[in-house]
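Session log. Operator J.P. requested a structure for one protein chain; no other inputs attached. Running the standard single-chain path with token output.
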Amino acid sequence: MKLIYPDRNVPRDDYERAFSDLRARCEAARSRNQVLVVDDDAVVAVTLREILRRRCPNAAVTSMTDPEAALHAITTGAWAVVIADVHLKSKITGGTLVEATPRTTDVFFFTAHDDDLREEEEALRVSATLRKPLSEADEQRLVDLINKRTRERGADSDAPCMSPVPSAMGRESEVPGPLNAA
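Structure written below.
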């Protein structure tokens, strides 16, 4: 496979360096805007993830159904928002996940049960408890908060990742489009 570049006068290394810089910038921006959805019901987790991906374009939304993996992700990652099911089918509960999150992370409980969780919310600094099925008002409140956090954390909502980056040659240029195979 032969790679064809838009400008044959620019060495291949310059394009690769520009792509590498772009990838690093995108990853840094996304790491500040990560949202984690944890629910042991895969349908609920994936549905909420897809709703948030569509409504919060600058957030990197991830869903997990395994509480142990979620606990590891929470302790090793940087999350802007964590949405955790209260009643997980595991020895790890939503409360355990919330306790592991840093204080700078907004946390929401997500439950289908009618439990009174006010004491736990206060003790664990949970922003709110969202009820399943998610009402339109709760969905809008969650989307507004995620979009607000995304803006606060430095994502430019008007500029996608494919914005001009300085090339290795020192001039401002558009990152090349998809490479064509010949």
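Operator note: The two ends are 6 Å apart (CA to CA).
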